[in-house]
Amino acid sequence: MNSEAEKQKCASSEALEKQHQAALSLLEAQLKAAKEEEMSKILEQHRISLSEVKKKQWCYNCESEAIYHCCWNTSYCSVDCQQVHWHKEHKRTCRRKR
Ligand SMILES: [Zn+2]
Ligand SMILES: [Zn+2]
Is a pLDDT exceeding 90 seen at residue 6? Predict the structure, then answer.
């Protein structure tokens, strides 16, 4: 048995293993960076859509997207909803100047 050759083989396989480990951790780091980028993209998208939602007005009566604005903090998706809410309570609280 040639112990010298055996040692060499061992050393080269250790080097290979190290290389392999280095390649793996590089790959992991790249994956992590890609994931973080993906996450920040998703978060950015979420932030944008959230601010768009906040800009929208929602029907006071049924919570659909509102297209009719009555007065401060009060909008409706349709004339029907406006009428319903008007008779229910809004005629007492409406701030619209007339
Ligand atoms: Zn409505
Ligand atoms: Zn009103």
Answer: no
How many angstroms separate the alpha carbon of residue 55 from the centre of ligand 2?
19
Cβ atoms within 10 Å of 60's Cβ, excluding its own: 19
The Cα 98–Cα 86 span in angstroms is 15
Q: What tens digit of pLDDT does each residue of 51-76 get?
A: 888 888 899 999 899 999 999 889 99
98 CA → ligand 1 middle, Å:
23
Distance from residue 34's CA to the centre of ligand 2 (Å): 50
Ion ligand 2 residue ranges (Cβ < 5 Å):
70-71, 74, 94, 96
Instruction: Provide the whole-model pTM.
Output: 0.51
Residue 46 alpha carbon to ligand 1 centre in Å: 26
pLDDT for 8 equals 75
Which DSSP state fits 61? Answer: T
